[in-house]
Design goal:
single chain, about 375 residues, alpha/beta, 16-stranded mixed beta sheet, two-stranded parallel sheet, 20 strands, about 15% helix, Leu-rich_rpt, SLRP
Length: about 375
């Protein structure tokens, strides 16, 4: 939990025996506050359905006492007045120490990019800007944010990231740019993210994955590229991702010819969970001794050879084939059994419950027809 993270990273600055609770409600209207730990000044602050950013700025004044209050989570959502000027936004979060800052459905006035001065002298560990109409990430967007580890910018309209973008060296651990308008993997954002562990690019307009797109992400554990327009993956695009644990390529127009990079990946990394739903990627190229979860919903290229190869995944415990072109004959003709599978979903396929004999140790099986 980020409450714990904040407590560990920010030692108590209050004199032992003192108690620091939320300011009086009249001082922080229209926001609200909840005390988490009075001995360390740890609080939760929420500002919802506010008329303007000016009112938010005024409500945050009591928390600006340097090294006193620690805001575990600050939530700002649904700002009604979307015409705030840049001057109002300047130093909005100055001198605040925040574990998790969530800005949701609260556009920065007429601006379509993140104002640099908004985070002047601000400490934030996890920053979320969700559904705020952002189209561009300028070079200096987060240079004033101290200790930033998670940068989450989903549900915006981002289509440009400055090639001079500066992020803290080895700082970011998680980046989420899901549901934006990116046409390629944002190398500008990844250039200095050598410690990055999770990258979410779901629901963009990415067409290809080139050889060097992820070359700086040596520590990556989670990669979500689902629901894009990816037609081609360079054979060596994933070659440096030796620590990768989770990969989703679901619902991209990939076919059998894009299986080579996946074969190399499964041979050289710790990959345990793969989602290739809605693609024609060959399942046999995903099989490894480490694979535990395979999701291949609406997969229309499952044949007898593919099914037989799955038997080689000796640690496969979860198999999801919902809506795939799979029939009972294919499984019977294969003749193999899958003793490691504990959970099986064959809903909306041309199979029936009799396939259970091929899964002797299954504990949960789903076979809905609707």
């Amino acid at each position: 939990m980020r409450l714990t993270l904040l407590a560990v990273l920010l030692p108590a600055t209050i004199v032992i025996g003192s108690q620091l609770r939320c300011p009086a409600s009249r001082r922080i209207k229209p926001c609200t506050c909840e005390t988490v730990n009075a001995s360390t000044g740890l609080v939760l602050v929420s500002c919802s359905n506010i008329r303007s950013w000016a009112l938010v700025k005024h409500a945050l004044r009591p928390f600006r006492r340097r090294k006193v209050y620690q805001i575990a989570r600050l939530t700002i959502e649904r700002i009604a007045n979307r015409t705030s000027d840049t001057r109002t936004l300047q130093r909005m979060f100055r001198w605040l120490t925040i574990g998790e800052l969530i800005i949701r459905n609260a556009p920065f006035g007429a601006a379509t990019k993140i104002p640099r001065s908004i985070f002047k002298n601000t400490t934030v560990f996890a920053l979320t800007i969700d559904g705020c109409g952002i189209k561009e990430i300028p070079a200096n967007a987060f240079t004033d944010v101290q200790h930033l580890q998670e940068l989450l910018l989903p549900n915006n309209e981002i289509n440009h990231i400055s090639h001079k973008f500066a992020s803290a060296e080895n700082g970011l651990l998680k980046i989420d740019l899901s549901r934006n308008n990116l046409s390629s993997i944002p190398q500008e954002l990844l250039r200095k993210s050598s410690r990055l562990e999770a990258l979410y690019l779901r629901g963009n307009r990415i067409v290809t994955v080139d050889e060097d797109d992820l070359s700086n992400c040596k520590s990556l554990l989670i990669l979500d590229l689902s629901i894009n327009f990816i037609e081609h993956i360079h054979p060596d695009a994933f070659s440096g991702l030796s620590r990768l644990d989770f990969l989703s390529l679901a619902f991209n127009p990939l076919d059998e010819g894009d299986s080579e990079p996946l074969r190399k990946l499964t041979n050289n990394c710790q990959l345990k969970t793969v989602d290739v739903s809605g693609t024609r990627v060959q399942l046999k190229n995903l099989i490894s001794a480490k694979l535990t979860t395979l999701v291949a919903q609406q997969h229309d290229a499952i044949n007898q050879t593919e099914i037989c190869c799955l038997a080689g995944a000796t640690k496969l415990t979860h198999l999801d084939l919902v809506g795939s072109q799979l029939n009972i004959t294919t499984i019977r003709n294969c003749g193999a059994t899958f003793p490691s599978v504990k959970q099986l979903d064959i809903s909306r396929t041309e199979t029936n419950i009799t396939v259970i004999r091929h899964f002797p140790n299954v504990e949960k099986i789903y076979a809905y027809r609707m």
